[in-house]
Amino acid sequence: MKISIQLPRPPSRDYDITIGPLPEIKIDGKAAIITNPKVSGLHLKNLLGAVSAKELYIVTIPDGESYKTMDTIEWVLDRLFDHRLDRKSTLIAFGGGVIGDMTGFAASIFERGIDFIQVPTTLLSQVDASVGGKTGINNRFGKNLVGAFHQPRAVYIDTEWLKTLPKREFAAGVAEIVKMAVMFDAPFFEWLETHDLYDDANLEEAIARSVALKAKVVNEDEKEKGVRAVLNYGHTFAHVIENFSGYGNLLHGEAVAIGMVMANDLAIEYGFFSEEEAERVRKLLKRYDLPTEYRIEDAEAFYDQFFLDKKSHDGQITFIVPEKIGKWHMLVDPDKERVVKVLKKWQAKGEGGER
Ligand SMILES: NC(=O)c1ccc[n+]([C@@H]2O[C@H](COP(=O)([O-])OP(=O)(O)OC[C@H]3O[C@@H](n4cnc5c(N)ncnc54)[C@H](O)[C@@H]3O)[C@@H](O)[C@H]2O)c1
Ligand SMILES: [Zn+2]
């Protein structure tokens, strides 16, 4: 299965996302696979069976979000120079979103930019991080604050890698699939309600449909000047939750699941999303054991955190909320009182806690 990304110009930046068994990857110049010990231990042999290049190197970086830093990038670049890679060389990202974001960023700056290929191995990176060309790292000011738009040359999505993925990591990817369906595609949402993603064929179809939706958004708005912002549904809340609960306790997709339920509450407060539809979203998330409960300690403090988000401009925040399943709405600069009212429901011990 193939889904095309067709960027307006220059046309040479178009690329294909191939969903299905990993095909042979033939690279003319030199190449380096960037991976981590976990993914390489589980799957590198299979990848090596498919890749050929003039010279092929493997660069292994430690596993984890905490290594998604400029220091690691420097270290990777040094290895690329050690191996005498050049402007015609290609990097291959082999891992989850952390590896994908870092490999893409290294590729965007190595000798002013070289090609890279995405071979995502987590569900989240297959449906989200590997598609669309956002690359980058974290620093002490926050997540993904430094980076570049650098589109891959190709993305190869093979569900075979996911067999070794822990259940929680799998569910975190499902949250981003649910996000796409709620925002853009009611029939897909209904399909998700009736199909089990633990089944291989269903999973592959869900990935394809989700990636197709993301591809369409990226084709329309590569640099997030408009509709791409809709992909932040649940994320404005999730980023605050992640800040408060400390990275590592909740997976990103888990925070997004809670964030979507909060965004739905806000939409209900504004009167354009129904309790019934919100319940359907919650039920779907619960089916994959995603969290939909969270206790806000202090609604005011939680509210203040929104303004630290890099996506808040001039003291304004925009919440992406559903109008109905399959239809998004941008709630620009809503009244503080109404937002805090919603947050307070999550603060009250009984109420928020029993959701
Ligand atoms: N660029 C984008 O558009 C975009 C979009 C969403 C998320 N992201 C980024 O992606 C990152 C999160 O990605 P993630 O959820 O894939 O996390 P991750 O890359 O940290 O992977 C999660 C864990 O699963 C392990 N793993 C990977 N593949 C595996 C496999 N097949 N079997 C067993 N274990 C495996 C990893 O080593 C890691 O320990 C964040 O840094 C986030 O900022 C980027
Ligand atoms: Zn996300």
Unreliable stretches: 350-355
Helix content: 40-55%
Rg value = 20 Å
- Global structural class: alpha/beta
The main sheet comes to:
7 strands, mixed
The largest beta-sheet arranges its strands as 1-2-11-8-7-4-6
**What is the total tally of β strands?**
13
CATH architecture assignment of the largest domain: Up-down Bundle
List the main descriptive attributes of the protein structure presented here.
355 residues; alpha/beta; Rossmann fold; Dehydroquinate synthase-like, alpha domain; 2 domains; 7-stranded mixed β-sheet; two-stranded parallel sheet; 45% helix; 19% strand; disordered C terminus; binds nicotinamide-adenine-dinucleotide; binds zinc ion
Task: Characterize the structure shown.
With 355 residues, this protein is α/β, with parallel strands linked by helices. It has two domains: 2-163, 3-Layer(aba) Sandwich (Rossmann fold), CATH 3.40.50.1970; 167-353, Dehydroquinate synthase-like - alpha domain (Dehydroquinate synthase-like, alpha domain), CATH 1.20.1090.10. The chain is built from 13 helices and 13 strands. The strands form four sheets. A seven-stranded mixed sheet has the order 1-2-11-8-7-4-6. Strand 7, helix 3 and strand 8 (115-120) form a beta-alpha-beta unit. Helix 2 (70-82) crosses helix 3, helix 8 (235-245) packs across helix 9 and helix 9 packs across helix 12. The structure holds nicotinamide-adenine-dinucleotide (NAD) and zinc ion. Residues 36, 38-39, 42, 63, 65, 68, 95-99, 101, 121-122, 124-125, 128-129, 132, 134, 143-144, 161-162, 164-165, 169, 172, 252 line the site of nicotinamide-adenine-dinucleotide.
